[in-house]
Amino acid sequence: MPHKILSVDDSLTIRMLVKRSFKNFDCVVIEACNGEEGLAAITKDRPDLIFLDITMPVMDGVTMLTKLKENPDLKTIPVIMLTAESGRENVAYIAKLGVRDYLVKPFKDDQLIEKAGRVLKLEPKPAAV
């Protein structure tokens, strides 16, 4: 059964990069463009891992993460924050919120895969029959 990865980012480019990064792995990448859509996707699809941007319209990543961690059924889903802000205070703040890891934008495919590989057992996509 493929892993479900949720990419929550207001940037279509970032969501496409996340999707492309996992194309050779047995994963399904689900997309949401803000925290509100992200929470709806979590409830519907129950992902194994979430990549979450911080700065987004409608509902930002910090608000979404806070709501996620308040829900006993969902709080154990690992979250890796994707952020353009790498300052020490920002990193310390998001770490306190209960994220598994973070990645500073811009990032490379292999960095994304390495971070995900610390959380999920990534398997190559099965060969088509």
Describe this structure in words.
With 129 residues, this protein is α/β, with parallel strands linked by helices. The protein has a single domain, classed as Rossmann fold (3-Layer(aba) Sandwich), CATH 3.40.50. It has helices spanning 12-21, 35-45, 61-70, 88-96, 109-117, and strands at residues 3-8, 27-32, 49-53, 79-83, 101-104. Strands 2-1-3-4-5 form a five-stranded parallel β-sheet, sandwiched between helices. The protein is globular, with a radius of gyration of 14 Å.
Main β sheet profile:
5 strands, parallel
Oligomeric category: single chain
CATH T-level fold name:
Rossmann fold
Shape: globular
Query: Low-confidence runs (pLDDT<50, min 5 residues)?
Result: none
Number of helices: 5
User: What is the percent of helical residues?
Assistant: 25-40%
Helix and strand pattern: EHEHEHEHEH
Beta strand %: 15-25%
How much is the average pLDDT?
90
Number of strands: 5
Major sheet strand order: 2-1-3-4-5
CATH architecture: 3-Layer(aba) Sandwich
Task: Name some characteristics of this structure.
about 130 residues; five-stranded parallel β-sheet; 5 helices; Rossmann fold; 5 strands; alpha/beta; about 40% helix
